[in-house]
Amino acid sequence: MHSSVVRWLNKEFVALSCEGRPAGSVAEETGEAFGRIEEELYALDLSLANTVRTRLWAHDRSSRDEGSKQRAQTLTGLARSASSSFIAPHFFESEGRVAIELLALRPADGAARKLAAEYDPPIVPARYCSYDGLVFLSGVTAVLPTLAEQLADILPRITESLRDAGSSWGKVERVSCYLHRSQSLAELQQLLAHQVDADIPQVEFGFVDGYSTEGKLIEIETTARL
Fold it and tell me: How far is CA 211 from the centre of its chain?
């Protein structure tokens, strides 16, 4: 378990990272990891209800699928939040089959209750969650032949979700791009420069081996002010 308290955007966040302990099924491994995360949050006077974003990392596709189901069963009600999931064997330093990264926000006194907005019709990930003046979009993907075509589909949907939440690209504070290892980072950076007309303070890039469905080449998370 790795835990850190971070001050960002004049708010306090708790970032937790936990690899599963391989005993029993993947669902049990995932549930046990969330149990340890919950204990750490309680020690900091927070709970899973303060979760604003999770990433699930998996060693292979079947582990991703089972782990994602267990996450959806665990993070319900006020704990529902933005999410993404990746297949990335290189992420692991243990024999775990799943790992969880969780970001929790300590709201200011009097902050409105966290709101999770759904896609229509609803799907496993929430569309976004808003909390204490910020909006956290779940990872957005597409299944199209090329990276350029996928970005041309993904970015307008991010624009729409930002608008729906009461935000815009001009208020985006961080974009996190998880690129398939087969793709070119230089091409991605060029495409983003041409298609995103905003000065984003933080743009980060990571590399993965797979997503929820074959054919996806990138997943993009977005965090913005309201």
Answer: 12
Q: Phi and psi of 161, rounded to 5°?
A: -65, -40
Task: Output b/e per residue, 1-20; b: 16+ Cβ within 10 A.
Answer: eeeeeeeebebbbbebbbbb
Spatial distance between the Cα atoms of 35 and 156, rounded to a whole number of angstroms: 37
Chain segment 120-138, per-residue pLDDT in tens: 999 999 999 999 999 999 9
Residue with the two structure tokens 């019709």: 121
Contacts of 164 (CB under 8 A, 6+ apart): 117, 127, 128
In whole angstroms, give the CA distance from residue 106 to residue 110.
Answer: 12
- State the pTM of this model: 0.97
**Residue 187: phi, psi to the nearest 5?**
-65, -45
Q: Report d(CA 92, CA 58) in Å as an integer.
A: 9
Omega of the bond leading into 156 within 30 degrees of 0 (cis) = no
